[in-house]
């Protein structure tokens, strides 16, 4: 069950060189675990833990913004991940996404939205501390943006083909994909044929729309089931 308030700022002020951290997570047990980890990390100073981005902004008020915010991907208030990321960034903090999985999709999401990276909820304590420290200093955590360009080499889709696949594999009909991308239906069908051919050449089935959806999820073009779109 979500909590209404878990704000628990650390005592005192950060020392020189410490990275200040705020946590936006609405599961009390997870919050307590993160707080315990950060309490044993002298390079980090916890400003507080909050159940929503709105309470984070209100809670910190005019105080110095956090260097980095550990932001849960899915919050119980139903807030948009994209808006949450934008609000935290606008407040002057780096964003480190806190998630349960997602692979390529989450790393692409992080790069596309200016986040410092992704840390998984199952990460061991030293990895979380290292990720927060690096992100708070403006460093990229995990894969950097350049590494997120298509590198597998087995089905090198162009940016336009990835856009088409994202819409078509998510369930849109060719006519709707054409409208959204500002191209003709014939061009959409041509892109889909090229996408199928590239996956076929790579030895990865893409003959049906279900196949295309599976390939899009595998390759980080669409989110895994249960993960929200931005």
What does this structure look like?
- The structure is a single chain.
- With about 230 residues, this protein is α/β, with parallel strands linked by helices.
- The chain folds into 2 domains: about 130 residues, 3-Layer(aba) Sandwich (Rossmann fold), CATH 3.40.50.2300; about 60 residues, Arc Repressor Mutant, subunit A, CATH 1.10.10.
- Helix content is about 40%, strand content about 10%.
- It is built from 9 helices and 5 strands, in the order βαβαβαβαβααααα.
- Strand 3, helix 3 and strand 4 form a beta-alpha-beta unit.
Shape: elongated
What is the N-to-C order of secondary-structure elements (H for helix, E for strand)?
EHEHEHEHEHHHHH
Number of domains: 2
Q: Give the amount of beta strand, in percent.
A: 5-15%
Name of the CATH superfamily of the largest domain: Response regulator
Rg measurement, Å: 20 Å
Averaged pLDDT, please? 82
Low-confidence stretches: 1-11, 143-153
Tell me what the CATH architecture of the largest domain is: 3-Layer(aba) Sandwich
The biggest beta sheet is recorded as:
5 strands, parallel
By CATH, the topology of the largest domain is Rossmann fold
| CATH domain class name of the largest domain | Alpha Beta
What distance separates the N and C termini?
24 Å
């Amino acid at each position: 069950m979500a909590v209404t308030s878990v704000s628990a700022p650390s005592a005192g002020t950060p020392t020189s060189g410490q990275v200040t951290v705020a946590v936006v997570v609405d599961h009390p047990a997870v919050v307590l675990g993160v707080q315990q980890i950060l309490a044993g990390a002298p390079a980090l100073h916890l400003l507080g833990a909050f159940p929503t981005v709105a309470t984070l902004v209100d809670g910190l008020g005019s105080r110095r913004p956090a260097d980095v915010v550990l932001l849960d991907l899915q919050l119980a208030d139903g807030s948009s991940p994209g808006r949450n990321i934008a609000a935290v960034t606008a407040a002057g903090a780096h964003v480190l996404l806190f998630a349960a999985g997602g692979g390529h999709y989450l790393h692409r999401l992080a790069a596309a939205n200016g986040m410092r990276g992704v840390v998984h909820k199952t990460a061991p304590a030293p990895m979380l501390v290292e990720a927060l420290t690096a992100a708070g200093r403006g460093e990229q955590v995990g894969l950097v943006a350049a590494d997120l360009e298509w590198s597998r080499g087995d089905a090198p889709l162009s940016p336009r083909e990835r856009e088409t696949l994202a819409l078509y594999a998510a369930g849109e009909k060719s006519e709707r994909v054409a409208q959204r991308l500002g191209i003709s239906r014939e061009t959409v069908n041509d892109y889909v044929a090229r996408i199928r051919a590239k996956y076929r050449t790579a030895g990865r089935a893409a003959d049906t729309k279900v196949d295309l959806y599976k390939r899009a999820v595998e390759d980080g073009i669409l989110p895994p089931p249960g993960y929200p779109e931005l």
